[in-house]
Design brief:
Length: about 200
């Protein structure tokens, strides 16, 4: 059965899915049934359920983990670029499966880094966690407040601006040890999603 949408002036705006006006304008509410699906090149781009939950199939979102321990990667000032080898999900294929997230679109991205390290000693004099992006770097420079930080975990959460094609990597530098003795434990993780 054919369907039509009219604006408040009674002018035809949409007929059987073909937009007739250059700017279709709706006033009031449009009840489209129990679900609203907005197409995206043949697939569902945005789905709104009857309860109002919104999912976007191509919304940039990743959650990646270290997967296995990386031993002896820093400690004597060596800069280590974090490698996350296990993808829990990469919703829009924006992660290179090694270390780099590439923003597909300009926006505000929420970034969480969970770091779990081992084998650091009280000799460590500096601890620098860098979130390195194309347009800026954000650093956390701290040391555990314990006498012998053999096992240390930290969580960093931030909202950052990224332009389309900007990249993001995470780097760790520990200094003061006699050598590169610091290990990255397997549950170290990175999550990023487009927030706005």
């Amino acid at each position: 059965m054919p369907w039509n949408f009219f604006n408040s002036l009674g002018e035809l705006q949409i007929n059987d899915g073909g937009v007739l006006a250059s700017n279709a304008v709706f006033t009031g509410n449009a009840d489209l049934g129990s679900n609203l699906l907005v197409g995206n090149g043949g697939g569902t781009g945005i789905a709104i359920s009857a309860n109002g939950e919104v999912t976007m199939a191509a919304q940039p979102a990743i959650f990646v983990r270290r997967g296995s321990a990386a031993n002896n990667v820093t400690g004597n000032g060596t800069v280590y670029t974090m490698v996350f080898t296990t993808e829990i999900f990469d919703q829009n294929a924006d992660y290179d499966a090694t270390s780099t997230f590439t923003a597909p679109i300009t926006g505000r991205y929420h970034v969480d880094v969970y770091l779990d390290i081992a084998s650091m000693t009280s000799s460590a004099s500096a601890f620098l966690l860098d979130v390195v992006m194309s347009n800026r770097s954000l650093s956390v420079n701290t040391l555990p407040m314990v006498a012998n930080p053999a096992r240390y975990a930290a969580m960093v959460s931030m909202l950052v601006d990224m332009d389309a094609s900007d990249t993001l990597v995470v780097r760790l530098t520990v200094s003061g040890e006699s050598g590169d003795i610091v290990d990255i434990n397997s549950n170290t993780s990175l999550s990023i999603y487009l927030a706005a």
